[in-house]
Structure formats: C-alpha cells, structure tokens
C-alpha cells in the first residue's frame, strides 16, 4: 500500500512539473496569443460627476465602466517592400567567402507586413480617435478594435510630430461611438488620482490606477524639446499604452499616455490634453499644425538670474539670444530682455511663452511687454511661421556657464587676435574675450563654460580687454553674481551665464 501511494504521488508530481514546464516554454517562445478582455460594451455614462468614494478609496470599478468602452486598440500595418528588407545572409559564408551572400539568381522576394499596436480613444460620436503620432507613423493600413472585438478601418485626418499627436477617423461608421470628454489638464494637481487605459503588451483594455507624480517634465525624447511638457504618473504604463487616455475621477481625459522610463518602475509620462485641445482645430481643418515663431532663445528665471538682473519677480521668460533677421529681431527685442506679457496675457514662464506664441497664426501682429534694464516697455512683432527643420523658436535653454578672471571665477581669458580667431574659428564680427582655460572646480566650471567661448559682456557692459572684465569683477561683492553674455562658436549661439563669486 505504501509503495502504491508513493507511485501515485510521484505520478502527480510529474504531471504538475510537466504542466509548469509547458507554461514556461510557451511564455518564453511567445506562443501565448493576444488576450482579449471580456467586458460590457455599454454606453458611456455621465462624466460630469466624480465617482463615489467608499472606505477612503475611489470607486475605480465604476470609473472603468465609464471609460473602457471609449478606448480602442490601434493596429498599424506597415508593408515592407523587397528592396527595403534586410539582406539575407547565407549561413555558409564563413566557409566559402562573402560572395555567397548574394541572392540566389532568379529568386523573387515578396513584400512582407509588420504589425505594431498601440492605443487610442474616441473624442466624438462620429468616430474621431485621438492617439500618438508614433503609433501610426509609417502606417500603410490602420484599423482599430473596440472592447467587444469589432474592427474598423481608419484614415489619418491629421498628425503633429512635434507634440506626438495624431487624429484618426473611422472610414465607414455604422453607429454612434461612446466617447470621452476632454478635461482641463492645467487644473490637474500633483497627488491626484488618475487611471490609465490601453493596450499594453497586446493585453487590450487594461486598466491601471495611480496618482499624478509631477507636471511639466521635459524628457528630450525628440529633436525639439521646446514642446515637451509631460505629466508624470505612477499608474502603470507599458509598451502598447501609447495613445491611450489618462483620466481623472470624473472620467475626463487629462493626458495621452506617451512614454515610459525603462530604467525605473512606475515612471510613465503623458502629453497634457490641453496641448491636444489647442491643435485639434488645425488637425481637423489642415491635417497639420502651423505654429507662430518669434526667433528667440529663452530660459527660465531662477533665483540667481533674478538677483543678477535685479528683477522684482521670477515671472517671465529671459531672452538669451535673438536670431538675426527673424520676427523678434525686427521688433527690436534684445538679449537680456524679460518677456512678461503677450497681447496683454501674463507670461509666467517659458512654457507659457512657447504655447502662446505657437498658437498665433503666422502674419499676425502681437504686442510684447518686456522688462529691459529694470524698465517696462512695449514692442510690436509680426509673428512668422515656425520652421520645423530649424526648431529654434522659443526654445528652452540649457543652463550654461560664464566666468571672469582666474582668481575669483576660475578661468583664463585672452584678447582676440587673428591667430586666436583662426585657432578657435571665431568670426571677425565677434568682439570680446576668448576663454582659454576653465578650472573644473570653480564658478565658471560649475556653470559649464568651455574653452573657445567668447565673453561679450559682463554685467551689461561690453568687454574687449582683460582690464574691462577685471573691473566688472571687482564691483561684485563676495557672494554676489557676475552676469555674463557669452558666444559659443561651436553652436553659433549666444547665452547668458551667471556666476556666484564666493571670494
């Protein structure tokens, strides 16, 4: 009897081990098909009321019932022609040489299709879908799948790579679609509950919840950082969530899930829905977005810049550089100006300036209010069209450095000569002092000044001799700030730099 029991237990253990081993192998070989969710695809209920809170937690189940029917899985089918396909490699090339890599004579290669997926959501009953541009980029065919499994072919109405937005529409709608209302992302608060819905890892209509972790994140994902203004959330976002909605407890869309940080956990990022609201009219009417452009490089005003420029507050955008020949230059804007208003609307930071100017149609005259040398004045500028390739208008400027003499600032400078101009490739139209050495541990080093930078001004005064620069440094008290205007030949741009002189 004991032997029979042992045989029975052994057999059972073998069966269990075999099942587990099979599951592991199936997962490792990606043999598990895309999983569809079974949910009621009923109409979206009233979104004007927040879900109830019981036992200290929101009713996420009711919120999911509101949101899920309006969320879709987006499938991008990209057809790759034979001449675009990677060259086949003959496995015997290592024995018979590289000539064996050539295609077999007479062999015909067929086009192949590549399918990728993302997420999206309805924003109107007639079938408009909002998603990310990178979800539909290079698509030859697009279709969506609803929560009940119904599929619809889609057409691209408009797209905007700068904000990673795309507007799609159902080609042959046969019904009124449930849709989500767009909220006001400027009212979103850090710490507020949010829900993300989408198609992560082909697991369609997955719901995750979390809070808003931060706002106004710039990640440097694209060529132009000036339009990046991400909402950060710890609601789980994975590959495939791109284009799905991030909603508040009312079911209103606060953002479009766009990016993740693969190095961390629960670090997801969404484009604020206000960004999409501003460009939706142009996407519908023109299929693309045309933006206003001033031609300035701006930066945020921090405590150091406020003190160095003697500003009453940190509101506004500091002009680091004015690009010659563009709208700002023609209007008389100068480096060192602080833009505080556009058409009477207060500008508190560079983000507001970028968004305000970008929303103005090219050819429109706007009135700028600036602070120059402590005094307010008005300038009229005619906005021009932003050049996407230049990607230079109203750009955020990275903090850079400046310096003065070696003792206090930590650098060495020299007056420009023909030999130095030739060596550092500095044009004849640039007058100032060239930086020849920077101490890493010094005010100049901390600010990021580099050899070959040219100091044009110190505390608002032009400097072309070392004596002029030394005189300006002597006027700065211990713990005070030295304000420099610097030209960087390698970048062809000028910028402000502020050094705190401890000695």
Q: What are the salient characteristics of this protein?
A:
alpha+beta, six-stranded antiparallel β-barrel, Thrombin, subunit H, Pdz3 Domain, 4 domains, 503 residues
Low-confidence stretches: 19-33, 38-46, 89-102, 390-404
The dominant shape is elongated
Evaluate the radius of gyration.
30 Å
**Portion in strands:** 25-35%
Q: State the helicity in percent bands.
A: 10-25%
| CATH architecture call of the largest domain | Beta Barrel
How many helices in DSSP terms?
A: 12
- Distance between the first and last residues' Cα: 92 Å
Q: Would you kindly provide a brief summary of this structure?
A:
With 503 residues, this protein is α+β, with helices and mostly antiparallel strands.
Descriptive overview:
With 503 residues, the protein is of the alpha+beta class. The protein folds into 4 domains: 53-101 and 109-170, Trypsin-like serine proteases (Thrombin, subunit H), CATH 2.40.10; 185-285, Trypsin-like serine proteases (Thrombin, subunit H, Beta Barrel); 292-396, Pdz3 Domain, CATH 2.30.42; 406-501, Roll (Pdz3 Domain). It is 20% helix and 33% strand. It contains 12 helices and 29 strands. The strands form 6 sheets. Strands 16, 17, 18, 19, 20, 21 and 23 form a 7-stranded mixed sheet that branches. A 6-stranded antiparallel barrel has the order 3-4-5-8-7-6. It has a 6-stranded antiparallel β-barrel with strand order 9-10-11-14-13-12. It starts with a helix and ends with a strand.
